[in-house]
C-alpha cells in the first residue's frame, strides 16, 4: 500500500495478490486527488487454466475501469470497457468461482478421508 497525504495532493494505491496452486488473482486499486484531477482506477487479473480447454497453460483475464474528473477543463471521463460484454464476463466469473469451490471441497474431502 502506498499513500501520500498533503495539502496539495492525496493519493493511495494498493495491490492484493492471491495464489492457490497454479491459479493467481491480482487486484489493484488507486484513488487520487491532485490540483489537476480527481479519480479512481481499478484492475483485476485472474491467471488460470480452468477456462483453457485446449491445454494446461494458464491464461490471463483482466478487467479494468477508471473514473476521472479533470478539474482544469470541467470534463468528465467515465470508461467501463466491459459494459457490452458484462453478462458474459459475469457468467464466466461465476463458473470459475463454482469450479474453484468444488475443487476446494474435493480437496477437503480427500484430506478428511486420509485422517
TrEMBL record:
It comes from the Eukaryota. GO terms for molecular function: cholesterol transfer activity; low-density lipoprotein particle receptor binding. GO terms for biological process: cholesterol homeostasis; cholesterol transport; lipoprotein transport; triglyceride mobilization. One of its GO terms (cellular component) is very-low-density lipoprotein particle. This is Apolipoprotein Bb, tandem duplicate 1. The lineage of its organism: Eukaryota, Metazoa, Chordata, Craniata, Vertebrata.
